[in-house]
Amino acid sequence: MKKILLLLTLISLPFIIQAQSPSTWKILSKVSFKKEFDDFIGMDIEKPIYTQPVLDLSGTEITVKGYIIPLKGKKAQSHFMFSAYPYNMCFFCGAAGPETVMQVFTKDKKEVEFTSKPITIKGKLSLNHGDVNELMYTLSNAEVVEE
Fold first, then answer.
1. What are 68-97's pLDDT values in tens digits?
2. CB of 47 within 8 A of CB of 33?
3. Which of these, 48, 44, 38, 72, lies nearest to 137 by C-alpha position?
4. Residues in a beta bridge with 81
5. Could you report the per-residue pLDDT of 99-109, keeping only the tens digit for each?
6. Per-domain residue ranges for the chain?
7. Is the CB of residue 95 less than 8 Å from the CB of residue 127?
8. DSSP H helical segments within the chain, as ranges?
9. CA-to-CA distance for 123 and 11, rounded, in angstroms?
């Protein structure tokens, strides 16, 4: 009986650990914003203030689950938006904030097929510290993680 319990514990341990880990989106949401006047566009903009947990992810490989938001009318793309929420709830369409999306550039420009279902990708995270023409987060060298 003890061997069976030990075996069941060892089999389920990865799932228990994964369930207890905070999601990447939850960590990325730990930002605040500061209004500053931008001379280039001539108006106040909100610049992100990243917390230490977000700064710690900068330059590292992360894994994140979310939804593809296509940038072009094609079925497959190597550069796309990625959202914590489905299209009808994403930052551009719903009430979510800019910390819930990132732009993605795939490794070797490999195209990813569009799906309305969530997928998991991994890649190197970069933070945007002030370019108003870019999103807060960029994932480069991204690959789809098979689940």
1. 988 887 789 999 999 998 866 666 666 678
2. yes
3. 48
4. 69, 103
5. 999 999 999 99
6. 59-144
7. no
8. 2-20, 24-28, 52-57
9. 28
